[in-house]
Amino acid sequence: MAISININGEQREVDAEPGTPLLWVIRDELKLTGTKFGCGVASCGACTVHLNGEPVRSCQTYIEDVEDAEITTIEKMAEDRVGAAVQQAWLELDVVQCGYCQSGQIMSAVGLLRENAKPTAEDVDEYMYGNACRCATYQRIRAGVLRAAEILEA
C-alpha cells in the first residue's frame, strides 16, 4: 500500500502494509539507518524519532498513523539548533561508548530540552528514564544533556 509521509522535511512515498512499524519503513525502505532497533516493545528508546516535534518510539508507531505528521530522524538533528547543541555536548564530553543507543538518547535529550531549557540532574534522569544504555553511560548522558542546556543558554 502506498503511503505518503513527511520525513526530515521531505515528502516521500513508501510502500508498506498497515500495521508496519515506522521503524522498519525508516530503516528498510528509506535506508535511514541512524534509528536503531533495540527491543521492539518501546522499552529501550533506541528507535526514538520525533513525530510533530515529540519523541516517540518508532517500533510501536505504525505507518498508517503518521501519514499527516512530520517525522524527524537523527539524520536531520544536526540542522536543528537544539539537536546541534546536544551533538556538540556529546562530542565535548565523549558521551558515547559503543554508540548503539545514542541516536535514541539524543532524540530524547532534544525532546527534553525543548520542553525544559534548564533541566536539573533529576529532571534529566526522570525524562531519560525510558532510554536504556547497555554500556551504562548514564552519568555521561546526564552530563551531556546538562552541557547542551549550557550551550543553548550561551
Automatic annotation (TrEMBL):
Gene this chain is encoded by: iorA_1
One Pfam family this sequence matches: Fer2_2
Top-level taxonomic group: Bacteria
Signal sequence, start to end: none
Gene3D superfamilies: 3.10.20.30, [2Fe-2S]-binding domain (1.10.150.120)
Organism the protein comes from: Phaeobacter italicus
Keywords: 2Fe-2S, Iron, Iron-sulfur, Metal-binding, Oxidoreductase
Gene Ontology MF terms in the entry: 2 iron, 2 sulfur cluster binding; isoquinoline 1-oxidoreductase activity; metal ion binding
PROSITE patterns: 2FE2S_FER_1, 2FE2S_FER_2
Segments forming domain 2Fe-2S ferredoxin-type: 1-77
E.C. no: 1.3.99.16
Lineage: Bacteria, Pseudomonadati, Pseudomonadota, Alphaproteobacteria, Rhodobacterales
Name this polypeptide is given: Isoquinoline 1-oxidoreductase subunit alpha
